[in-house]
Amino acid sequence: MVASTKIHSLIAREILDSRGDPTIETMVVLESGYRGVASVPAGTSLGKYESVELRDGDEKRYGGMGVLKAVANVEGPIASKIRGMDATDQGAIDKALIDLDGSQDKHNLGSNSILSVSLAVAVASANASRVPLYRYINQLFRPFVETEIKRIPTPTFNIINGGKHGAGNLDFQEFHIIPASNKAFSEALHIGVSVYKSVMQILKYRNAVYSVGYEGGFAPNLFTNLDALEILREAIKASPYAFGVDVFFGLDLAASTFHQERGGYKIKDKPAALSSTDFTKYLVELHKQYRLLILEDPLDEDDWEHWVELSKEIGKDVLVVGDDLLATNPERLRRAIKEGACSAILAKPNQIGSLSEFFGVIAIAKQADIKTIVSHRSGETNDSFIADLAVGVQSDYVKFGAPARGERVAKYNRLLQIESELAASRVVSTTS
Q: Does 182 lie in the same domain as 73?
């Protein structure tokens, strides 16, 4: 007899994320007894076009960050709506959740409530199907874009933190190193760890602060943004790897955080705020100096004109990545494609709020030859779902933070496990 995949019950609870703030974890239980658990991360640097997570707002409890209302929504109206539905029909369940909320930005039920259920349904279905989660996700994604699992996405490692993720003395939010995409994931991870530890030794030698930020990258007491890039360059020179061959630079500027209301971009490297045109020129020169591979959120999320200008200038050499600009939103992505505003998207499930909608955004990007980077958030959990998600949709890159801190390492270790499984399956297929 085939085990029933109908939803029997939902159980939600409040847990803590990696910053010590509450978030939601949901378990979906099927009539067969199979179950799936998923938790939802939260960001620090939030784009204004993201879907809205529901917080309690009670200042006496977790500073207003509690999610008991979200928990109640899962166990109340959401459970009533989807109980008895077939968990293998992901599209129907996600549509039911979206319709139940009834708003464009999911502010009624909360994107955290909706996403926790959407992801947990997929996990429960994968368990009931007795297939690895990444393969089950691939099955769900194939109707959007026919996609075969061939590789592990290339990691981009956050080595130095600034902006809202660091100590506040650097303007740019993240300084990355990116192994060459022809490296096996296990080798790429070794490169990331080697450079990370090399940076630590350099900071110690300079008597600089080497504590870490939200995403595991170091948050040193440097004077300018270029100081951080020079330390990365020094660390690569001290490693066995060649810059521009084995490893490359990436930056997440999160430029909206230092874009002034009256216009202009104010950074420590320049004595006065730069106009959008002048800041675009500065970024072009920055690329010439450091040969960037990835440039994420280089301009304010509403500075469309200069996103287009920058992409025309350097878009053939650099992945100009939209995060706050796009907010994993299909309409904003379509506009960016039409105007030529960027060449890659940073995709975060909690920015859009359901698995099916996430698939839709990735499909739009792939069909337009826009590179995809599946990303974590600064407030993460130990849930490794996005590692399976990145493999399942075959994203080009993954952004999981530094190769440090348990909530980041959980994702990298999961990719190592998947890499081993894929290698084993290839051996079986060639010998059978």
A: no
CB-based contact 100:22 (threshold 8 Å):
no
What is d(CA 426, CA 250) in angstroms, rounded to the nearest whole number?
A: 32
Structure confidence by residue, pLDDT tens digits, 300-319: 999 999 999 999 999 999 99
Place of tokens 């910053």: 19
CA 186, 401, 172, 19: dihedral to nearest 10 degrees?
-170
Same domain, 164 and 232: yes
Range of the domain at 335: 154-431
Residues 163 and 301 in one domain: yes
Best CA proximity match to 383, nearest among 123, 11, 40:
40
CB count within 10 Å of CB 67 equals 29
Span 183-228, pLDDT tens digits: 999 999 999 999 999 999 999 999 888 888 889 999 998 889 999 9
The tally of CA atoms less than 13 A away on the side-chain side of residue 352 is: 27
313 is catalytic: no
Length of the chain: 432
What is the C-alpha to C-alpha distance for residues 415 and 309, in angstroms, rounded to an integer?
36
Q: Which among 183, 348, 399, 411 is annotated as catalytic?
A: 348
Q: Of 53, 174, 215, 309, which one is the catalytic site residue? A: 215
pTM of the model: 0.95
14 is known as an active-site residue? no
Domain count, the chain: 2
